[in-house]
Amino acid sequence: MTDKLSPTQMAWRAAQDIADGAYVNLGIGFPEMVAKFQPPGREAIFHTENGILGFGEAPAAGSEDWDLINAGKKAVTIKPGTAFFHHADSFAMVRGGHLDVAILGAYEVAETGDLANWSTGPRGVPAVGGAMDLVHGAKTVAVITDHVTKDGKPKLVQRCSLPLTGEGCVTRVYSSLAVIDIVDGHFVLREKLASLSVADLQALTGAALRLEGPVADLDVPAL
Amino acid sequence: MDKTLPDLAAAVAGIDDGMTVMIGGFGGSGAPIELIHALIDRFLATGHPKNLVVVNNNAGNGHVGLAALIEAGMVARLICSFPRSADPVVFTERYLAGQIELELVPQGTLAERIRAGGAGIPAFYTPTSVGTNLAKGKPVEVFEGRSYVQERWLKADVALIKAHLGDRLGNLTYRMAARNFNPLMCMAATTTIVQVSQIVDPGGIDPEAVITPGIFVQGVVEVPHPQQEEDLNRAKAVYPEAAA
């Protein structure tokens, strides 16, 4: 069984759930791609924790302005409606419940909603950035992740083994195989690749998958 | 009242050994490169200041700005959220060799601790870091059924700030996302020193557009066309150049 979604396809799937008018923070890395796949006719406003709401796409190479960057320190642009603010206001937007959606990467997600995405252990230089803040406050805290590690071990688990970013914070997982909600401390399967049986998916998942109503096919364009 | 300073050397003259120094910026954006380099110049000429405690979001990139300050051996302790960058070799080597202490703080908590320091609020509660290694040893309290960690204010002896326009009264504007931590740090330091691209006459900044009111600022020095850390790193610059 090698059939799985690419990170680009996971980003596409996550983008389909962002409502018109939503305020959204996209974590550094794969989640940044979600912005490219906004469905036509919907306007989401993207927040970057270094102090911009409603930024535009990356500028052409050579025309970067290094006072105008995102949280990943990549150059962005302004567009009509952009707003700047300082860091305390920026994290007031995060923790204060003003964001509708935060989409992050993950090393592990537990059925309790616990997330580990900042540290792989005590070696090297620790760095947390805004990860621990971003998991609190948004109405939907979603994760984009491969369903299993490169070694084939489940990333969706009963309890995280790596240092936590936050407790009980994740509400939805867009994995390379499925869309799973976290409800009352359980994984609830909403969509899966048509090529997989529920039993196949359960075998690749480190905690029980609950079925509440029909499970839809996870149908994503080739991209 | 005239808070303008004649040059960069005068701007950094009052920074002593062991002081806590907040340095504005998020990565290179809003980083006061010229003020940092002036501080390095003073250290190379006099041996001071050293054993500084530096507060910044990051830990420097390449061999200029904050990275150069660390590379010069002036920093004993760093309080930051994300000590990684495209080229974090200077901090990484010193940290792994035990030559520099690190206090890691979540980014929003760092911002709020600085804001609290400037606002006279000694502690506050935040949901950030509850149940994680970064909350160990800190008081936790439940409000409306949810747990929150107590965090303390953060204050500094000096803040080194980059702004865009300034006047002799210390009123400031910033340029785009170069604002970031700068207005917060202006509030949290006993002495706030600001490099601005242009000093204008009072009234030259629309009162509606003032981001940092002058009450939070002690010194303003004009640095036209300030350098960007990103441009310096792309040119593989090293400060001071003789170290190349």
UniProtKB/TrEMBL annotation, chain A:
SUPFAM superfamilies: NagB/RpiA/CoA transferase-like (SSF100950). Transmembrane segments: none annotated. It holds the Pfam family CoA_trans. It comes from the Bacteria. Keywords: Transferase. Belongs to the 3-oxoacid CoA-transferase subunit B family. NCBIfam families: pcaJ_scoB_fam. PANTHER family: KETOACID-COENZYME A TRANSFERASE (PTHR13707), SUCCINYL-COA:3-KETOACID COENZYME A TRANSFERASE SUBUNIT B-RELATED (PTHR13707:SF57). This is 3-oxoacid CoA-transferase subunit B. It comes from Pseudotabrizicola sediminis. The lineage of its organism: Bacteria, Pseudomonadati, Pseudomonadota, Alphaproteobacteria, Rhodobacterales.
TrEMBL record, chain B:
Pfam families: CoA_trans. Keywords: Transferase. PROSITE patterns: COA_TRANSF_1. It comes from the Bacteria. Belongs to the 3-oxoacid CoA-transferase subunit A family. This is 3-oxoacid CoA-transferase subunit A. It comes from Pseudotabrizicola sediminis.
